[in-house]
Model the fold of this input.
Amino acid sequence: MSVTHSLDTSTSRANPVPSPLKRLTVPKLQAMKGSEPIVMLTAYTARMAQLLDPHCDLLLVGDSLGQVIYGLPSTVPVTLEMMCAHGAAVVRGSWHAVVAIDMPFGSYEASPEQAFASAARVLKETGAAAVKLEGGEAMAETVAFLVKRGIPVVGHVGLTPQAVNALGGYRARGRDEAEAAKILADARAVAEAGCFALVLEGVMEEIAAEATRAVSCPTIGIGASATCDGQVLVTEDMLGLFERTPRFVKRYDDLAARISEAAATYAGEVRSRAFPTEDQIYRTK
Done:
């Protein structure tokens, strides 16, 4: 038996609940290459993990939490402490999907040894199954070092948000032959180094399709191609919680408007003393 956690919505407390060991495994995800598409979304909290988990094969605790949760200008300021805290919450809130956690900027680039120390800490403190790190050929040695020591790795090439300062922005990559060739070389390098899955972000469609054919591990697209072996989006983007919608995002709801409407209704009822009513008040008998 494994242990997951059920969120008691009356107290907002996570209570441990035994559940059958049904969580997907890294080898099972690897075997999905070229078959059923892999469904991946980001999650940063236990409650969101509970809601997404039944529908996903892979939950990513992305360093995008820097912007989504903390209001930071980029992912660069995100720390290991942040990733471990949110990663542990997502693991507690899920039982089915593989959970992978982003390695934040500065926690793995210096050396394979630094990467191992950071990744080991993440897996120990969270209970997650894998880590994700950005970078292509330059990170291949590090990927191989981690994989040989029992740490499953998700790669990430193309538009790499942690390198936004070097890239000069978030524009799609692969618009010229040299850049396209580099993306393909990066994809091959980290796949051959042992990544069990590879995120292709913000690249020209034909490059994503070619990379998917060229590597043996599943590719997961975000602003890439429908021919990738899976897709990922930032959940809050997909749910319409922000005003700006990137081109590669399809909004499946408009939760921002619905939350604003609910808050406005609540505010109106408080100010008019329509809330609370007898149904929400405790009285002695």
